[in-house]
Amino acid sequence: MFVPIANEPRDYAWGSTTLLSEYLGRTASGGAEAELWLGAHPGCPAVVTAGAHAGTALGPALEALGARQPAMLLKVLAAAEPLSLQAHPDAARAREGFDREDAAGIPRDAPHRNYRDPHPKPEIIVAVTPFEALSGFRPEAQAREVVEALAAADGRVAPLLEHLAAGDALAWLLSGDAEVAPVVAGAVAAGDALTGTHPVEADTIARLSAAHPGDPGILVAMLLNRVSLAPGEALFLPAGNLHAYLSGLGIELMGPSDNVLRGGLTPKHVDVAELLAVVDPTPLDDPRLPAEPLEGGTAYRPAAPFELRRITGAHVVEGGRGLLLAVSGGTATVDGETRALAPADAAWIDAAAPFEIDAAEAWLALELDTP
After folding, report:
1. Taking a C-beta distance cutoff of 8 angstroms, is the pair 82, 246 a contact?
2. Which of 192, 234, 248, 281 could form a disulfide with 126 if both were Cys (CB 3.0 to 4.6 A apart)?
């Protein structure tokens, strides 16, 4: 089965006006183009573009064909400004939270709803351009070194050192305590003093304070790893990983979910208690996900029920279910039929037999370990 699909970019305020359209050779809308969703998630489903079900959302079209729904969501993400600090639940927490909020009568599209579906949202992102992100807690000694440098430059930051020692720094920064605001102000004022010794942290403070003045997330960022990805490098963000994307273009693959627990750097709903229940505070030395070379491509294989492949030539897949996005022209041979691919073409593939994608550049998301 080869089902051609398409979608329109989502216009979140942090989106770039150029990166996504330039990469896919699309006509730019003139406004923010933040994410292009390819999948069947009801929040923004892709639409079938040819055949008997043309014009129908992918989910209902597959249901009419008697086929299974995609258990993943592929996105092109283009960030011109920082996204919110956020984490995602595991499967058990997603199910429990969804049922709890349904039982409470909270509409699924309510701004204050945390769980819009019952699914977990593990995700990976692969950089297409240089890509900046925050991902996971850094070792405590590294965080303390940065906070000590800030406190030395501006004494208002000193109370954060006490909370680092007590192990409750994140909870305190997000608590709404009146003492937090002057600590954040002190850190912003001291940011330039870090330029010589901690240039990356100085840059993070400058970026976040420009986009979200006074937000406690500016200091939460000092507790996290700042990661600079070169094109082709990837991050894996499992359940509980506190993260924020700062800038760049990337290909993102995740579970079929839009469950987001936010922790700042956003005007949207922040549920501190729920976030703290989900966040994993275990320090990470390096959150990058290594790439694996393949014939005609590269694979990114996280500890999740999917993998992402970047195709850069003739690439054969031993059957399976996947979401395809062509960046260059090429061909897809599925079920014995060869179809031409133009830049920005996309499709849902469900094939028991081997199939081949031949393109200078394309992305293929594959489901794993599904019944």
Report:
1. yes
2. 234
Residues annotated as binding site for Zn(2+)? 86, 88, 123, 243
Q: What is the mean pLDDT of the chain?
A: 96
Residue type, 118: P
Hey, what are 20's tokens?
Answer: 């996504």
Quick one: fold of 293-367?
A: Jelly Rolls (2.60.120)
Give me the helix-helix angle, 159-166 and 140-153, nearest 10°: 170
Beta strand pairing call for 288-289 and 123-127: unpaired
Q: Where in the chain is the domain with CATH 2.60.120.10?
A: 2-134+229-267+277-289, 293-367
**For 33-51, what is each residue's pLDDT tens digit?**
999 999 999 999 999 999 9
Active site (catalytic) residues: 262
pLDDT given at position 371: 42
In SS3 terms, the chain reads as CEEEEECCCECCCCEECCHHHHHHCCCCCCCCECEEEECCCCCCCCEECCCCCCCCEHHHHHHHCCCCCCCCEEEEEEECCCCCEEECCCHHHHHHHHHHHHHCCCCCCCCCCCCCCCCCCCEEEEECCCEEEEEEECCHHHHHHHHHHHHHHCHHHCHHHHHHHHCCHHHHHCCCCCCHHHHHHHHHHHHHHHCCCCHHHHHHHHHHHHHCCCCCHHHHHHHEEEEEECCCCEEEECCCCCEEEEEEEEEEEECCCCCCEEEECCCCCCCHHHHHHHCCCCCCCCCEECEEEECCEEEECCCCCEEEEEEEEEEEECCEEEEEEECCCEEEEECCEEEEECCCCEEEEEECCCEEEEEEEEEEEEECCCC
Per CATH, the homologous superfamily of domain 2-134+229-267+277-289 is Jelly Rolls (2.60.120.10)
What type of residue is 358?
D
